[in-house]
Structure formats: C-alpha cells, structure tokens
Amino acid sequence: MSKLLSVLIAAAFAFVSAGSFAASHGGAMKDDKKMEKKEEKKEMKAEKKEEKKEMKAEKKEEKKEMKAEKKEEKKADKK
What we know:
Blueprint: H1 2-26, H2 32-78
C-alpha cells in the first residue's frame, strides 16, 4: 500500500511539473514576419475606420446643408 501511495505521489508531481513546463512555453513569441503582418493589418483597419468616420461626417454636413437650403426655399416661397 505504501508503494502505491509513493507511486501516485510521484506521478502527481511529474504531471504537475510537465504541465507547468508546457504552460510556460505556450505563449512563446511567434515569427517576426507574422507579427509584422498582424501589425500592418491592424494599421490598415484603423485607417479604414478613420476614412469611414470622415465619410460619415461629410454626409452629415451635406444633409444639414440640404435641409438648410430646403428651409430657405420654403421661406422664400412663403414670401
């Protein structure tokens, strides 16, 4: 019985140490090229978002101008 207990404890220690070793190497750095590509993609996405924001802002201003022109036309029609 004592040998079985000793074997179980040794197996548990082996399992834990192997698990910690694998966990410590699981987050290793990837290739530089892959990392650069990811960064480039992020930059491109950020640029596209900026462009979309600018386009939306331009469209809003155009709509405001159109509304202002319509109001002026209605005022002119009433006079």
